[in-house]
Each structure stands twice: as structure tokens, then as C-alpha cells.
Amino acid sequence: MYYFLLYLNFIKINLQSIFEYRKAFWYGQVCMITSYVTDIALIWVLISRFKTINGWGPYEIMFLYALNLCAYSIAGVLLRKPTIALPSMIQSGEFDDILIRPLNPFFYTITREAAMYFSQLTVSAVTLTICIMKLQLTINPASVGMLILVIISGALIQGAIDLFAAIPAFWLIKSDSIKDLLIGDIRSFTRYPISIYNRSVQVFLTLIVPYAFISFYPAQFFLKKNDFIMFHPVFQYLTPAIGIILIVLAYKFWNAGVRHYNSTGS
Amino acid sequence: MYVYLEFVRKSFFERYVYRANSFIYLAGSIIRLMVMVSVWKVLLDSGISPEGVTFVDMMSYVIINMIVTTLISSNMTSRITAKIKTGDIAIDFIRPVSLKYSLISEQLGINLFRGIFNVIPVCLVALLFFNLKFPNSFLDVVMFTISIINGIILMFAINYILALCSFWLKTGKYNERYLRTLFELFGGTFIPLWFYPQFLYKLSYYLPFRLVTFDPISIYLGKLSLEASLKVITTQLIWIVCLYLLERYLWLKAQNYIFIQGG
Prior knowledge:
The complex is a heterodimer.
Chain A: H1 2-20, H2 22-49, H3 58-92, H4 95-99, H5 105-112, H6 118-134, H7 141-166, H8 169-172, H9 176-185, H10 199-208, H11 216-223, H12 239-260
Chain B: H1 2-16, H2 21-43, H3 55-72, H4 76-86, H5 89-94, H6 99-129, H7 138-169, H8 173-187, H9 198-205, H10 214-220, H11 226-257
Helix pairs in contact in B: 1-6, 2-3, 2-6, 3-6, 4-7, 7-10, 7-11
């Protein structure tokens, strides 16, 4: 509770500092929205030109994309900035600062740097709505509840992956390339249904870096698909469990990292 | 000329110091290639699209695209914005080397590094695993080489003009992203323009972005007749001249406009 209030306060401060530079802020938001909309539009152009990709239609692919983007931006609000900043905080010794506060270092780090992902959230919410209308998905309290649950658990998975990408910095000091690989390139697999890839990639995205649970498996539930490749259909319900397990593991890993931390002394 | 080669060499070796990272970036590029390969494999499953494009064509398309986009990537806008913000730009005005060519040669150094440590290995992987298409005739090779070099010059001109615009816009990061988006949308780097709906194709046709990678690759794949290829090269040259004049004009204006806010 205490951390929640602290978090709200930090958000307020961050918003104030963003709105100091109002024009720059809007310029940036418009830019991000344009670039995401272009991305989605191009995927739509591609898939609708070929009708389907492995049995997934254009709006289904958009749904997949939006689900992923939504989880990504919620994780972003909570965790992205601290995880991006962590290596440089460790490098510069700024992390010392966090350890001497009378607060849990983990919660302090993530609350201190609340980032705003307005544009991504807007784009993903609008796209999800368009897809739900176009695909005429059933809307009832249960399905809406499931959607919210899936998005939140997806955000937990994404957040845990973000943390796993950043925490090695406690040992390696410089680990930007691991981050780029995990959050940038490996994530690009999830734009399309993972059933189009080679088997080893499918196993990798399900069991090792479980991006498939953010959008691919839950999307099958909403779209009533049966594209489980070699896995059991029960996987469509596993997202919440995986999310909780991963975030707990990430927290443990963080603690191990903090214990290992030696100030660089600079 | 020698000075600028030195710039290229310097910025190349600056990257070379951190070459350990390049293995991870290489893994990233291979992943991106894998994604594109899988997508086109599924989409062109039946062998050939109504436009007469085969999977082998698409593989060559994706790979040449990767090489060229690496060679033309640019962060000149960010660098010039940083210089304007700190006031360092004042020094560049009095230096005996041109700002334009030193920026471009530094960029070439960075891009060459990525070309050697990233793109060449990816190409080797591609050559091992896929069937690639090679041009039909020697004439196509010549035309392709000329048009791709023009394309690279063209994109450098666009990037440099964007960099000059930061004298007025005073922000870098987002402008680079805008340009990337435009290039992706109208340049056919993600989906070749063959597959675009009519109106989008028409729109792209009148913009210079398609001349950078799409048209040269079409020549490479033998999709364009000799006249069409010559037309592409002429259009490229016209664009290059126009952009050169625009850039000279902006540079003159910028010199008068610049206001150094101390350092």
C-alpha cells in the first residue's frame, strides 16, 4: 500500500516533468503512434494480400499484435525504464543511492522511474477494439474478464523478461546487448503466429523465453483456434500461472543480483 | 579526400573496440532473417504469387535489403542535434573540413563495421541454407550496381537533409524514427511494393524511397526491362540533383539561422 502511494506520487512528479516540455511530448507521441500504426497497417496489407498466414486472417494477426503490444506497454509503464536504466546505474555507481534508502530497493527502483506509454497503450487498445468488432468475438463479462487477466499476466511475463534481461548487469556491468536481443529481436518472433516457425523456435518461445504465452496461446482461446503445434490445448489457460511464476523468479534473481552488487566506486 | 578516409577509419575502429557485442547483434540479425524467411515461406507456399514472385526471389530480396539498409542507416540527425544543443556546432563551422562530409564519413565507418561484422556473416548463413537467385545477365549486374550506388547516395542525401533540419527542429531522435517509418512504408523494405494495394503503390511511386532498395532489387531479379531500368537510374539522378540543391540551400540558411546558446 505504502509503495502504491509512493508510486502515485512518483507518477505525478514524472508527469509534471513531462508536461514542462509539452510540445516535445506531443511531437514524440505522434511519432510513436505513426510508427506503430504504420507497422500494424503494413502487417494488415501483407496478410490481407495473401488472405491468411497459416490459417490466421489479417484481423487475427492484428489481434495477436495488439495483445502483445498491450502487455508490452503495461510492463513498460511499470518496469521498462528501470530495467533500461539499471546497467548505467550500476556502471556509474548511482545504484548505491538506491541501497541506502529506507525502502525495498526493488520497489524503490521500479516506482521511482514510472514511464508513460500513452501512445502504445492507445494504439493497442484501439486495435484490440477494432479486431474484436471485425472478428465479432463474443463479449460477455467472462470473456472481458479473461482478456484483462490475460493482458495483466502477459505484462507480468514481459516484465519478468525485461528484468531477466537487465539483472545480469549486476555481474557483467555492461549488458546492453543481452537486452537488445531479448526485448528487441527475440520479441519480433511474436508478430506472427509461432506455428509458422521451425519446431526448435516454437519450443524456445514456449519453454525458454515464453513470449508465446503473452499473445499466441491466449489468442487461440479468444479466436477459438486449434493451432497448438505440438503442445497441449491447456496451454491457452496457462498465461496467468506462468506470469506469476516468472515474476517471482525474476524477483529472486534480482535479490541475488543485489547481494552480489559491489559498487564500481566511480 | 584523404582526411575523410581517415574519418571513416577512425569511426570504424571506434566500433572495433567493442566488437564482443557484435556476436549478440549478429544473433539478432539472424533472428530477424529467420522471421522473414518463415513468413515468406508460409505465404509463398504454393510456389509463385500472381505477381510472378517466387520464394527464391523473396529470399534474395530480403537479403539484399538487409545489406543495403545496414549501409544506409544513419544517426547523423542525433549527432548534429547533440552538437547544436551543446554549442559544439560552432567549432564545426570554423574547422577546415566540411561538416557534411565528416558526418557522412563517420557514418560510413559505423555502417562498414556493421556490414563486415553483421551483414557478411548473415549472408554467409543465407548462402549456406537457402537457394538465392543471381542476375540473369551481365547487363543486369551492371545496371544493379549503378542503381544501388545511386540509391545509397540518395538515402544519404535524405538523411543529411533531415540532419540539417535539426537546426530548426532542435530534436533528433523522433525525426529519425519518422524517416524510418516513411522509408518502411514507401520504400518497400518490409513488403515489396509488388504486393501493395493500388493507391499505396501509386503514392510510393512518386516518392524517392522506392528508388533506394526496391527498384535496384527489381533490376537484380530481372523484373524490369532495360528501358525501365534506365528510367529508374535517370529518376535517381534527378532526385539526387534536386536534393543536392535543396541541401545547399538549407545549409546556407542554417549558417545564418544558427544561434549558439553558449557552451
